[in-house]
């Protein structure tokens, strides 16, 4: 895919590790970063806006886009919950002359890194433990007991993906994790 020298920053982690929090912090610090808004078929949360956090659509509409080859990558991250990076979103960001920042699951992160190669910095956000992850997800209050358990049961396997990433970012103390993330991103986009 054509770009104007833009770079890619990929954040991946198990659900609840804190990647969205850190990505939002980075977007507030770096003018030259633009968030890749993914498409998803999961239900919108009360605080989420269509076109800002995600492009929300039905599972049928998502599958139609898959058939039309509209995605750079996509995954059924949880049963019947599809997530994907639209090629049109990438074009929008490259045309704006900005660097792109992704918040995707670990498989999507590995696939995007493989696709973009040296143009991409892939960062794995590591929580201190699965217990802390559970505590964060419960406090976030976005999940039912069923969806929370589904996310936790996937997390242990997802933690093993850290070795496929360029950097591991420990997210224990949030201020330190944000500062460390800033350093990693600054070094990469200035290189
Ligand atoms: N270092 C931290 N200490 C305590 N709470 C944190 C920390 N980092 C993030 N949180 C909180 O944990 C919750 C999960 O964070 P966040 O939503 O950013 O995770 P995520 O990895 O993007 O999850 P998902 O994949 O489900 O979107 C949020 O409520 C966030 O405010
Ligand atoms: N492979 C992809 N994964 C994505 C994409 N957009 C988001 N995600 C990941 O899905 C889970 C769940 O997210 P949530 O918002 O429902 O908590 C999380 O790991 C996201 O990073 C995408 O385009 N591709």
From TrEMBL:
Enzyme class: transferase
Family indicated by similarity: Belongs to the guanylate kinase family.
Listed SMART domains: GuKc (SM00072)
UniProt key word Kinase: yes
Cellular compartments annotated: Cytoplasm
Annotated ATP binding sites: 13-20
GO (cellular component) term, any one: cytosol
Keywords: ATP-binding, Cytoplasm, Kinase, Nucleotide-binding, Transferase
Keyword rRNA-binding: no
Function comment: Essential for recycling GMP and indirectly, cGMP.
Organism: Cryomorpha ignava
InterPro entries hit by this protein: GK/Ca_channel_bsu, Guanylate_kin-like_dom, Guanylate_kinase, Guanylate_kinase_CS, P-loop_NTPase
Catalytic activity: GMP + ATP = GDP + ADP
Molecular-function annotations in GO: ATP binding; GMP kinase activity
Main location per the UniProt record: cytoplasm
EC number assigned by the record: 2.7.4.8
Chain ranges of the Guanylate kinase-like domain: 6-186
One family name in Pfam for this protein: Guanylate_kin
Full protein name: Guanylate kinase
